[in-house]
């Protein structure tokens, strides 16, 4: 493997990078510019307004989301074909009905400042957004239940986790994070309403994607849902409990926060329609203080 001529190593390398494989979306993706060079793009591609005073081209790098998913699926091509064989499914009839569950993760990488550098002035913290293909299943024609043909054995391993976007930003900087991940969210939304047509095992097959935001820690969930930070008296990211209520009642909680409700509360916070004092207003919105920008599904990993 090692002692191959350089050009064959180069072509092997190209296959591993997003942007190499042919694919199609039906219907075509909305809000995803087809004119971008597919490959590594500026993290602010797809975002029109300018972010702060950091030079836009230094702040983030990412792959286009759909292109990265295609590359990840092609990586798993053998596993998909093995899964079909093991389950006794006829390869040639299994061309549609594939469902792919994606786990999304996003976390700060801490201080990455240049110690003696004279490079461009960028924030000294970095954040990485990545995804893992958790499972692939297929519902065969006429069958009621879906059959799982691939399941990630080590879902929390570094090896199954694929980086999508690297950014110079502090994870507490809600505005910059929103600006960089906004286009990623728009692409994800578009993919939910479309099917990917991709050649796997020599046949064109169609895939649908489901996204689960189970790889965020509490700090990131609060950031993405526009909640007050962890010192808030509203302790829970899924319900409206205050610290006092939670200490009285450790058992009976229902999930009351959802993305759309948080958006409504932000609007109330912003417009203060009842002309309340800051304290009354805060009590009404239960700790929502910024505009939530990424839907986090309350599901356990």
What's the average pLDDT? 85
Compute the gyration radius: what is it? Answer: 22 Å
Task: Please estimate the helix content.
Answer: 25-40%
Number of strands: 9
How much of the residues is beta strand, in percent? 15-25%
> How many domains, in number, for the residues?
2
**Which class best fits the helix and strand makeup?**
alpha+beta
What's the story with the biggest beta sheet?
A: 9 strands, mixed
Task: Give start-end ranges of low-pLDDT stretches.
Answer: none
InterPro entries: RAG1, RAG1_DNA-bd, RAG1_pre-RNase_H, RAG1_RNase_H, RAG1_ZnC2
GO molecular function: double-stranded DNA endonuclease activity; histone binding; protein homodimerization activity; sequence-specific DNA binding; ubiquitin protein ligase activity; zinc ion binding
Protein name: RAG-1
GO cellular component, one term: endodeoxyribonuclease complex
Description:
The chain is an alpha+beta fold. It folds into 2 domains: 210 residues, no CATH class; 61 residues, no CATH class. It is built from 9 helices and 9 strands. Strands 1, 2, 3, 4, 5, 6, 7, 8 and 9 form a 9-stranded mixed sheet that branches. Strand 5 and strand 6 form a beta hairpin. The chain is globular, with a radius of gyration of 22 Å. The mean pLDDT is 85. InterPro entries: RAG1, RAG1_DNA-bd, RAG1_pre-RNase_H, RAG1_RNase_H, RAG1_ZnC2. GO terms for molecular function: double-stranded DNA endonuclease activity; histone binding; protein homodimerization activity; sequence-specific DNA binding; ubiquitin protein ligase activity; zinc ion binding. One of its GO terms (cellular component) is nucleus.
């Amino acid at each position: 493997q090692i002692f191959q001529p350089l050009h064959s190593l180069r072509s092997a390398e190209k296959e591993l990078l997003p942007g190499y494989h042919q694919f199609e979306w039906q219907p075509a993706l909305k809000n995803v510019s087809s004119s971008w060079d597919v490959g590594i793009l500026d993290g602010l591609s797809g975002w029109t307004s300018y972010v702060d005073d950091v030079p836009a081209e230094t702040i983030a790098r990412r792959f286009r989301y759909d292109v990265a998913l295609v590359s990840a699926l092609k990586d798993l091509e053998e596993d998909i074909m093995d899964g079909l064989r093991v389950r006794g499914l006829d390869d040639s009839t299994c061309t549609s009905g594939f469902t792919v569950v994606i786990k999304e993760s996003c976390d700060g990488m801490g201080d990455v400042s240049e110690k003696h550098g004279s490079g461009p002035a960028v924030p000294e913290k970095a954040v990485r957004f990545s995804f893992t293909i958790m499972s692939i299943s297929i519902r065969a024609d006429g069958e009621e239940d879906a059959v799982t043909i691939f399941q990630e054995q080590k879902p929390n391993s570094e090896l199954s986790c694929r980086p999508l976007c690297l950014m110079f930003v502090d994870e507490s900087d809600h505005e910059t994070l929103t600006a960089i991940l906004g286009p990623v969210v728009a692409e994800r939304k578009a993919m939910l309403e479309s099917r990917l047509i991709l050649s796997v095992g020599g046949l064109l097959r169609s895939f649908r994607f489901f996204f689960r935001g189970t790889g965020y820690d509490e700090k990131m969930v609060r950031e993405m849902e526009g909640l007050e930070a962890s010192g808030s008296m509203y302790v829970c990211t899924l319900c409206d409990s205050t610290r006092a209520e939670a200490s009285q009642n450790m058992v009976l909680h229902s999930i009351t926060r959802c993305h759309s409700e948080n958006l409504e509360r932000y609007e109330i916070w912003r417009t203060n329609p009842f002309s309340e004092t800051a304290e009354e207003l805060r009590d009404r919105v239960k700790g929502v203080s910024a505009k939530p920008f990424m839907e986090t599904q309350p599901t356990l990993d």
